[in-house]
Amino acid sequence: MKKMIAATLLGSTAMVAAAQGGPVHAEGLPAPAGVLSLSADAATDVPTDTVRMTLAAEQEGSEPAAISSALSARAQEVIAQAKRTAGVQAESGGFTIHPTTDRNGRINAWRGRAEVVLQSRDFAAVSKLAGQLASQMQVQSIAFSLSREARQAAETKLVEQAVSSFRDKAQATARLFGYGSYTIREVSLNEGGAVMPMPRMYAAKAMVSDAAPVPVEGGKAQVTVTVSGTVQMLK
């Protein structure tokens, strides 16, 4: 697991002017001297453990009611079959019906589209299921993400690293400005969550009768924790 720790000064400026000649607050009181703002990051790449797969079917005809009924029945059948697969969650996705027109603007047909969304942490199970459902609905996109448990576990490890980096940077920077130590004025912790890879899009294919599994292989998501705040540098 690749880990990266970086600390960045915000502004890299310490207010070290004497009180009588330094900046003044709105209240008319001198601003504190020797105040430094900075931040530190800790990041790691975590393997994604959840897959979200969108299946879709389209149908065209002259009667919108018939199209709606047929697509609804197909979506419900796919959801029922998916729910019989252990470890796979299924729910309805998008559902649209719209007219197509000729060059004179008259409606000459209707086209409908129904989607079903599958979600699972069992990549092998959802891969096999998608192959079995290929004659009813085809894969349109696949996206991977981190479960809440995986993200929180990564963040817990990163907090210690980010805090340590913040303290080291504060001490080193205080010395560069001629100070011997520092005290923390205020600090905040931002758990940035995970940066996910882009969903993989699939072109619609003709219906097939085989049940070949759909390739499902996740990547990694970057989880970042940031510690930022201000410190009072001390002589």
Automatic annotation (TrEMBL):
State the PANTHER family in the record: PERIPLASMIC IMMUNOGENIC PROTEIN, SLR1258 PROTEIN
**UniProt keywords, alphabetically:** Signal
Give the matching Pfam families: SIMPL
Protein name per its UniProtKB record: DUF541 domain-containing protein
* InterPro entries according to UniProt: 26kDa_periplasmic_antigen (IPR052022), SIMPL/DUF541 (IPR007497)
The keyword Signal belongs to this UniProt entry's keyword annotation: yes
The answer, when asked if Coiled coil is one of the entry's keywords, is no
Signal peptide start-end: 1-19
